[in-house]
């Protein structure tokens, strides 16, 4: 066993946790391939400005002369000159005859209308103040106006038309119900007998097929087939009994 003698040290156990954690290594900076190629080839980039701060003007002797400005291009037309005999010039249409003026003297007609016209009825008014305040009697409520009208207390015309339209629709529905055809139809005796014979024939065929089934039903398909045929036989027996017990059969459409 060896002995180590420590003569001097400045380490304190309480200061170990106060030290900051070491910084992680920095990732290398991104450098584009294009920038590396430019540095290798030493191509100077283009330098441009926004133009003159003040546009220099031309001297007075360099003025714009004829034919030096911007001209508009002439558009080529699709017109083609026709050579040879041209069609004749169309003739001028004949002049229309002037319309005859009416011989009616409208002044005389208007004078006669005015003479025959009846004078406008004076509206009854009432002056109730010394200053000449005029009040119309008709709309004042002092004279019975609406109760003397010929249609007072009668049903309006639009309600009469509406009631007539509703009554027509009700009459149509009533007529359709009275003359409606019956939905049930009686089967004739011949059809009933034929239906009964067909049911019995089907029952015989089904009974024959049922008797031909194997006695041993050891699989699921055999069991299902047997139960299905038994159900069909029972249904046929019910139908035969129903048709035999009811001589009158109706069919609803």
TrEMBL record:
<feature type="domain" description="Enkurin">
    <location>
        <begin position="161"/>
        <end position="251"/>
    </location>
</feature>
<keyword id="KW-0966">Cell projection</keyword>
<dbReference type="Pfam" id="PF13864">
    <property type="entry name" value="Enkurin"/>
</dbReference>
<dbReference type="InterPro" id="IPR052102">
    <property type="entry name" value="Enkurin_domain-protein"/>
</dbReference>
<keyword id="KW-0206">Cytoskeleton</keyword>
<feature type="compositionally biased region" description="Basic and acidic residues">
    <location>
        <begin position="59"/>
        <end position="68"/>
    </location>
</feature>
<keyword id="KW-0963">Cytoplasm</keyword>
<dbReference type="InterPro" id="IPR027012">
    <property type="entry name" value="Enkurin_dom"/>
</dbReference>
<feature type="region of interest" description="Disordered">
    <location>
        <begin position="49"/>
        <end position="98"/>
    </location>
</feature>
<protein>
    <recommendedName>
        <fullName>Enkurin domain-containing protein</fullName>
    </recommendedName>
</protein>
């Amino acid at each position: 066993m060896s002995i180590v003698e420590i003569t001097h040290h400045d380490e304190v156990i309480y200061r170990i946790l106060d030290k900051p954690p070491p910084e992680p290594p920095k990732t290398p900076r991104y450098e584009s391939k294009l920038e590396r190629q430019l540095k290798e080839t030493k191509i100077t980039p283009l330098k441009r400005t926004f133009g003159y701060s003040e546009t220099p003007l031309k001297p007075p002797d360099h003025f714009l002369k004829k034919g030096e400005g911007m001209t508009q291009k002439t558009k080529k037309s699709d017109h083609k000159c026709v050579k040879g005999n041209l069609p004749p010039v169309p003739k001028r249409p004949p002049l229309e005859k002037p319309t005859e003026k009416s011989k009616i003297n409208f002044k005389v007609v208007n004078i006669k209308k005015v003479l025959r016209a009846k004078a406008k009825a004076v509206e009854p008014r009432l002056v109730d103040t010394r200053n000449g305040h005029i009040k119309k009697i008709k709309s004042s409520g002092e004279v019975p106006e609406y109760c003397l009208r010929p249609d007072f207390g009668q049903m309006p015309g639009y309600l009469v038309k509406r009631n007539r339209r509703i009554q027509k629709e009700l009459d149509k529905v009533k007529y359709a119900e009275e003359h409606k055809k019956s939905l049930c139809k009686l089967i004739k005796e011949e059809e009933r007998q034929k239906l009964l014979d067909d049911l019995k024939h089907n029952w015989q065929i089904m009974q024959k097929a049922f008797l031909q089934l194997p006695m041993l039903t050891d699989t699921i398909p055999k069991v299902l087939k047997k139960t299905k045929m038994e159900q069909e036989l029972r249904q046929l027996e019910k139908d035969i009994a129903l048709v035999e017990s009811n001589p009158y059969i109706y069919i609803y459409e």
